């Protein structure tokens, strides 16, 4: 019987950054997210589309519990993450991993690829129970899985191209055996040719490992290619939500129409 | 997958990196000169006492028959008011001066790094308290604080090093705090937090390793100033006590015989100049290699 509990449920989440009143003027409070609700089903790819400053990053940070939402509940596999103890939360972190936008900034320049990829296994050693030898083997395996050879284990990040680094980031994200992968614009910092390779890799990995993707992007073509369902976010509010085909072929709101109208490739597909 | 094509034909990464760093260092003649001067100074630090032509003078032996001999082949830097060979004294003095300078920089950078790292990483009131303490230490003139501490603890090599170190760490605390604050916001730190890394792991594995370059550069630049401060304390008479030779003390004594017996002051002065100059040039060179952002 398939498990019908959504993998990730976000219910009425708001995040307000309080304004400041200082000696040299004040700033108003920022409503980064307003009453956002969405659910991501197990095994699907959910796309979140929005322009810069629309609250996408705040969303990922809230899901990762790096920020506490001002209101609302975030449930992962039915559990309210805010209610978890520190130990439970740490254990749960192995199940939610993230790939960041900028592959140049998201790898520690002082750590070798081996150390980068084995670190999650080291942190979650109680859960995964791998010794040093097994960790190295698994790191080599992961590198092969993302299309890099195990011969790169002793290299340092600066020796790799953007696409290769993003592969290392994906390997690191997979190291702790996650079920949900947050992809925060994983291809927008890459060359167009490399973008396609990384997207194909993500596609393959989802097939092989049965991952659930929460894909954040402002690139509609990419979202359409990869995602089953899509939500549009604008100024911290979800303005439209539905299956990919529905949204792209038959956008209802003005914002969705405007966005999709601005995408020449999508229009060609649609005709 | 064109972007995964092997680049294994290149030299092994570690050596490659070192070679590139050395190449960049070699680009600047001044850095090389600094490196040579520092090597020379370190050589005398290690072997100065052993190689000195008149070891008995270092131990405090006097030869009053040969007072104030102008530089000759037997005494290239002449002799002083006690008939001691100035070259021997200066060679032996290298050990004391450089080791004291090194001790000051080491202790200062360790205290400063701990304070700065904790302040920058913890933030909040911890940061506030530690940095105000740092500011407080900065308001007290270093030499005066060192004099007070040396006066309280009594003269001697160890006390002098401790005294100067206690006024030396604020610079490092501020530097490290700034670097930690910047590194804390790096995406790879967020990634480590998302994985569930403990704060200790984040600080020691992800943040501090990325702040060492500017610390090393500052240490090298500071070596010169620390040697000068040590000499300054010796000059005003609260450093190392005679007969242990030390550049500042030597200079302080020979002051009374200027300008007639200029060589007694010139040798320790030149030694100090060479050491400080060398460490500064080396520090500049290291900065170019390790911290390219700060290059002029």
| Largest sheet: spatial strand order of chain A | 8-9-10-5-11-12
Taking the alpha carbons of the first and last residues of chain A, their distance comes to 39 Å
Quaternary state of this entry equals: heterodimer
Secondary structure: number of strands of chain A: 12
| Main sheet characteristics of chain A | 6 strands, mixed
Biggest β-sheet of chain B: count, sense, barrel? none
Please state the structural category of chain A.
alpha/beta
**Count of strand segments of chain B:** 0
Approximate strand percentage of chain A: 25-35%
Q: What's the quick description here?
A:
Chain A has 271 residues and is of the alpha/beta class.
Task: Record the SSE blueprint.
The complex is a heterodimer of chains A (271) and B (296).
Chain A: E1 8-17, E2 20-22, E3 25-27, E4 30-40, E5 45-49, H1 56-63, E6 71-76, E7 79-80, H2 86-93, E8 96-99, H3 113-123, H4 125-128, H5 132-145, H6 162-175, E9 180-184, H7 192-209, E10 212-217, H8 220-226, E11 229-234, E12 237-243, H9 244-249, H10 254-261, H11 264-270
Parallel strand pairs in A: 5-10, 5-11, 8-9, 9-10
Antiparallel strand pairs in A: 1-4, 1-6, 2-3, 6-7, 11-12
Helix pairs in contact in A: 3-5, 3-6, 5-6, 6-7
Chain B: H1 13-26, H2 29-51, H3 55-58, H4 86-122, H5 124-139, H6 142-153, H7 157-166, H8 169-184, H9 187-195, H10 199-207, H11 212-235, H12 247-254, H13 263-290
Helix pairs in contact in B: 1-13, 2-4, 2-13, 4-5, 4-7, 4-8, 4-11, 4-13, 5-8, 6-7, 9-10, 11-12, 11-13, 12-13
Describe this structure in words.
The complex is a heterodimer of chains A (271) and B (296). Chain A has 271 residues and is an alpha/beta fold. Chain A has eleven helices and twelve strands. Chain A is 39% helix and 25% strand. In chain A, the strands form three sheets. A six-stranded mixed sheet of chain A has the order 8-9-10-5-11-12, with helices on both faces. In chain A, β6 (71-76) and β7 form a beta hairpin. Chain B is built from 13 helices and no strands. Chain B starts with 12 loop residues before the first helix and ends in a 6-residue tail after the last helix. Chains A and B meet through α2, β8, α3, α6 and α7 of A and α9 and α10 of B.
């Amino acid at each position: 019987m398939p498990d019908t509990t959504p993998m990730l449920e976000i219910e009425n989440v708001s995040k307000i950054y309080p304004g400041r009143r200082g000696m040299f003027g004040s700033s108003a409070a920022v409503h980064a997210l307003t009453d956002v609700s969405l659910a991501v089903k197990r095994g699907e790819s959910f796309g979140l589309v929005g322009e810069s400053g629309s609250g996408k990053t705040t969303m990922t940070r809230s899901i990762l519990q790096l920020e506490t939402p001002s209101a609302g509940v975030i449930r992962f596999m039915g559990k309210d993450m805010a209610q978890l103890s520190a130990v439970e939360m740490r254990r749960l972190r192995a199940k939610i991993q993230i790939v960041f936008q900028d592959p140049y900034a998201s790898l520690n320049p002082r750590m070798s690829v081996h150390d980068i990829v084995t670190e999650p296994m080291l942190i979650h050693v109680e859960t995964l129970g791998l010794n040093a030898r097994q960790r190295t083997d698994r790191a080599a395996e992961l590198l092969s899985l993302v299309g890099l050879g195990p011969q790169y284990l002793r290299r340092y990040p600066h020796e790799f191209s953007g696409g290769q680094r993003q592969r290392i980031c994906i390997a690191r994200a997979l190291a702790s055996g996650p079920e949900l992968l947050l992809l925060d614009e994983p291809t927008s910092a890459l060359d167009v040719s490399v973008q396609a390779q990384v997207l194909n890799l993500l596609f393959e990995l989802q097939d092989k490992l049965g991952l659930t993707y929460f894909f954040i992007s402002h690139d509609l073509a990419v979202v359409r290619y990869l995602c089953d369902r899509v939500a549009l976010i604008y100024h911290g509010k979800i303005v439209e939500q539905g299956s990919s085909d529905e949204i792209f072929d038959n956008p209802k709101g003005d914002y969705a129409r405007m966005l999709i109208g601005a995408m020449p490739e999508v229009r060609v597909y649609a005709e | 997958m064109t972007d995964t094509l092997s680049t294994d034909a290149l030299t092994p990464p570690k050596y490659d990196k070192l070679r590139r760093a050395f190449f960049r260092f070699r680009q600047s003649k001044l850095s090389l000169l600094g490196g040579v001067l520092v090597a020379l100074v370190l050589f005398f630090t290690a072997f100065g006492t052993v190689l000195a032509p008149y070891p008995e003078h270092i131990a405090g032996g006097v030869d009053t028959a040969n007072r104030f001999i102008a530089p000759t082949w037997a005494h290239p830097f002449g002799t002083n008011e006690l008939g001691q060979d100035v070259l021997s004294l200066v060679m032996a003095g290298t050990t004391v001066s450089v080791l004291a300078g090194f001790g000051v920089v080491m202790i200062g950078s360790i205290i400063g790094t701990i304070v700065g790292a904790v302040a920058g990483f913890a933030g909040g009131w911890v940061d506030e308290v530690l940095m105000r303490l740092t500011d407080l230490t900065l308001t007290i003139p270093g030499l005066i604080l060192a004099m007070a501490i040396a006066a309280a603890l009594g003269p001697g090599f160890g006390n002098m090093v401790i005294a100067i170190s206690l006024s030396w760490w604020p610079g490092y605390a501020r530097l490290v705090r700034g670097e930690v604050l910047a590194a804390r916001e790096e995406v790879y730190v967020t990634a480590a937090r998302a994985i569930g890394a403990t704060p200790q792991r984040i600080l020691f594995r992800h943040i501090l390793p990325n702040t060492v370059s500017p610390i090393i550069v500052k240490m090298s630049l500071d070596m010169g100033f620390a040697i000068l401060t040590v000499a300054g304390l010796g000059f005003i008479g609260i450093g190392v006590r005679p007969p242990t030779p030390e550049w500042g003390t030597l200079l302080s004594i020979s002051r009374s015989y200027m300008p007639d017996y200029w060589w007694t002051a010139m040798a320790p002065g030149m030694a100090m100049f060479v050491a400080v100059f060398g460490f500064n040039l080396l520090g500049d060179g290291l900065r170019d290699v390790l911290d390219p952002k700060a290059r002029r």
